[in-house]
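Recall from the previous lesson that a structure prediction takes nothing but the amino acid sequence as input. Here we apply that procedure to YjjG family noncanonical pyrimidine nucleotidase from Lutibacter aestuarii. The sequence below is the only information supplied.
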Amino acid sequence: MNIKHIFFDLDHTLWDFETNSDIAFETIFKKHEVNVSLNKFLNYYRGINENYWKLYREEKITKEELRYGRLKEAFTKIKHEVKDDLINMLAVDYIEVLPNNNQLFEGAYEILDHLKPNYNLHIITNGFNEVQSKKLENSGLQGYFDKIITSEDAGVKKPNPIIFKYALEQAKACSTESIMIGDNWEADVMGAINTGIDAIYFNYHKKSVAENIKSVNNLLEIKQYL
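The prediction returns the following tokens.
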């Protein structure tokens, strides 16, 4: 492969979203004295959040609807009544607190140190501008990347081909010299492949994958391809 540009997803690929999100909820529930079982809440919230992000990717809901709806639905599932004012405060505080916790996936720094001398590294993320920039800065990841491409800047979300073409333009890269690495099959892998960009699936959940797809369970396994 004649690869010169590597595009990484951020959440669930380098930045351990689930771990950091759990810590954020523990913090804001204590602050606002939300007396529920955190584990019970999170068991419902994780799947609900995933569904809301899918709707957001498909342009079916707004950022504000995502932030409010995922919390409202999770509290409804555990039969805990919460007033809208508190839900809105929790939504704001969650976004504020989330980037303060910066657990990364095992091998994140090591693989970036390995790749940085030989490739131009970039981020393509559907996450919100104000949050993603803080995550990159607070985690010490910012210095590794030349271009940070967000869906808000591109005007569309992965897997829309427009965001990948926008990323190539921003990075001054061509598709045949680029590769995308991410955890989301639809948004990262198929989104890239459908735009003519090769892809590596960060398959930390160890799902069944077709043999023709490059797949790794650990970030350090990327070395076998790059």
